[in-house]
Design brief:
The structure holds two protein chains of two kinds. By secondary structure, chain A is α+β, with helices and mostly antiparallel strands. Chain A contains four helices and three strands. The A-B interface holds A 46, 51, 53-57, 59-60, 62-63, 66-67, 73, 100, 103-104, 107-117 and B 33, 36-44, 52, 55-56, 59-60, 63, 98, 101-102, 105-106, 108-110, 112, 117-120, 136, 140, 143-144, 147-148, 152-153, 155.
Chain lengths: 119, 155
């Protein structure tokens, strides 16, 4: 019996509730900026570059890249080989502060690393 | 020098008596470097980067002081080299392992810089620089053994 009352109530409410709700049309607030930063004006940041030298051991360079950048061995080895074969490798592109941090860390391991303005 | 045991961030290496003498010899050469291995930037604005170059030199100087302190503790610690049959056992935490690699490399690279950054070492061995060249090779030997022993892939 109780179930019948409940069913009636549901049927009553279901009949009153519209299946779709019509919302008033509201236009989004879109403003056109007359002047925006062009891509060229954005800070390009700095490249962290490691340069080849005849003294640092290849396996040590791989170890350092893993330690400083938390890279997997494969990625660290790829960049180490790039340094070895091409004379340098761009390790990352960062803000000035972050690039400086990485150069400090790499030089603390005696790797010849520099930061160069990205073009 | 070979790895005997590695677990829970602790490495135990077996080192022969002669190897211990060689390791101690090169470690006692530290510090060799007096400044950065190179400039902070090759093409940056020198005036803009001047204070940053100074910061790099200061950071490296601070590191040398800290490494010297750790060196004294490392070599002076009772039981650091525990005598076993055929040599010693030396225990290294992961932090000490990384530190030892850095110090060995600092000695190796520092000597190379002092020798004028030569492209090849062989000719120097014949020109009165044998001690430095040998010390560099000893550093490389221990660096290679350390990296090889712990299997970089597993670190």
């Amino acid at each position: 019996m109780g179930g019948g009352i409940e069913n009636s109530a549901v049927a009553f409410h279901a009949a009153d509730v519209p299946t779709t709700i019509e919302l008033p049309e509201v236009a989004p607030d879109i403003f056109r900026e007359d002047e925006t930063e062009s891509k060229e004006n954005l800070d390009p940041g700095y490249l962290v570059i490691c340069w080849n030298d005849p003294v640092n051991l290849m396996e040590f360079v791989t170890h350092v890249f893993q330690q400083v950048f938390a890279w997997k061995k494969e990625k660290a080895e790829f960049h180490m080989m790039q340094v070895h074969n091409a004379g340098k490798s761009v390790l990352t592109r960062e803000t000035m502060e972050r690039a400086e941090f990485y150069v400090h860390e790499l030089q603390k391991y005696q790797l010849h690393a520099t930061m160069e303005p990205a073009e | 020098m070979k790895l005997v045991e590695a677990k829970e961030g602790l490495y135990v290496f077996q080192i022969a008596k002669r190897e211990r003498v060689l390791l101690t010899h090169v470690l006692k050469l530290f510090p060799v470097s007096t400044g950065p291995i190179g400039p902070l930037s090759k093409s940056g604005d020198e005036a803009k980067l001047a204070e940053h170059e100074l910061a790099l030199a200061e950071a490296l100087a601070e590191q040398r002081v800290e490494h010297q302190r750790l060196m004294d503790a490392f070599l002076g610690e009772q039981g650091r080299f525990a005598e076993v049959k055929g040599g010693f056992h030396v225990r290294l935490t992961t932090v000490q392992f990384d530190w030892l690699l850095r110090v060995l490399n600092e000695v190796r690279v520092g000597l190379w810089v002092k020798l004028g950054r030569p492209e090849h070492l062989a000719s120097l061995a014949m020109s009165g620089q044998l001690d430095a060249v040998v010390a560099m090779e000893i550093c490389a030997f221990f660096q290679s053994r350390l990296l090889e022993a712990v299997g970089e892939g597993g670190k």
